[in-house]
Amino acid sequence: MKNFISVHDVSNINALVEKALEYKANPFKDKALGANKRIGCLFLNPSMRTRLSTQIAAQNLGMEAIIFNVGSEGWALEFEEEAIMSGNTVEHVKDAAPVMGKYFDVLAIRTFPSLKNREDDYSELYIKQFIKYAGIPVVSLESATLHPLQSLTDVITIKETFREKRKPKIVLTWAPHVKPLPQCVANSFSQWINAWGEADFVITHPEEYELDEQFTKGATITHKQNEALKDADYVYVKNWSTFNDYGKIYCNDPEWMLTQEKLKFTNNAKVMHCLPVRRNVELSDEILDSASSIVTQEASNRVWAAQAVLSEILNAK
Ligand code: CP
User: Which of 28, 81, 230, 305 can bridge 153 by disulfide, Cβ–Cβ 3.0-4.6 Å?
Assistant: First the structure.
């Protein structure tokens, strides 16, 4: 694996999941793989799980992880080619990324979308510019449109918890939120579940919350949440802002919040969420504090997803 930006960087999803589960069973088995190697983790936006799990994963492989909160502590970076830098940006990625490429063996980056201009966000300029100029492997810690380490984690969590000899029914449901959020997690989850191909996959959301078809194609899409939930084995809860009239909140109907009452339509479904979650807005206390919720197990698996990906990258170097 050269870079890890989306599911397209993965040749065999099941093999990568198996690798992650091997690390879960034996975290230090490849302690020598990353000896004398260094990963730089750049955060242009906040994080808890991604930051800590990537650090732990790197250390499990014997790597040193250096965290740089570029967004709050670094020079403001310019990403546009041929920019006349007379505004707020201080350093061009063309100058910064090659320096980082000399300091590190792997570069991992978190950037969020602006949610102001869809074409700009969906061009993934930031992460593409780091790939272009760093000269070392780049791992997405969430980009403008995708969150591949989260989605790999989600497939790992589904595979390790599903015991039946049939395809699971997985439902991605929109949930209310107080502010416009990126589409990254929903896009990425859809992309991975579709690429994995071993589930009946249904997406449910209010009208006007369609996601980009390039990620959802292959899933059944409905505006009727209760129908979607019928016989579900997994319910993945996530808010996202509008894609077509980009970055807006149209509907914030609390009726879309998942409750125990609605879970009765499901096949005793396990409830997933990438976290952080707004309690009693996105998901009710009664669900998050119940046995149906597997959000802590899911978040703990972030370590093994990151470790499997870093291992693939180190082995390819
Ligand atoms: N799920 C996730 O990416 O969490 P953080 O934003 O805390 O990293």
Answer: 305
> Is 50 a pocket residue for ligand 1 (Cβ < 6 Å)?
yes
CB of 130 closer than 8 Å to CB of 109: yes
% of the chain residues with pLDDT over 70:
100
**Residue 55 pLDDT:** 98
Domains of the chain by start residue, with CATH: 7-146+301-316 (3.40.50.1370), 150-299 (3.40.50.1370)
**Is the per-residue pLDDT at 71 higher than 90?**
no
Q: Could you give the residue ranges of the DSSP H alpha helices within the chain?
A: 13-25, 49-60, 70-73, 93-103, 118-122, 125-134, 148-161, 184-196, 213-216, 225-229, 260-263, 285-288, 295-300, 302-316
Q: What is the pLDDT of residue 298?
A: 98
* The model scores a pTM over 0.90: yes
Structure tokens at 94: 């063309």
Dist. CA 51 → ligand 1 center (Å): 8
247: left (phi over 0), alpha (psi -120 to 50) or beta: left
Structure token digits, residue 66: 């250096």
Binding site membership of 21 for ligand 1 (Cβ less than 6 Å): no
Distance 83 CA to ligand 1 centre (A): 32
Which residues on neighbouring strands pair with residue 91, listed in sequence order?
Answer: 77
Sign of CA dihedral 70, 282, 173, 208: negative
* 167 DSSP assignment: P
Closest approach atom of ligand 1 to CA 53: 8
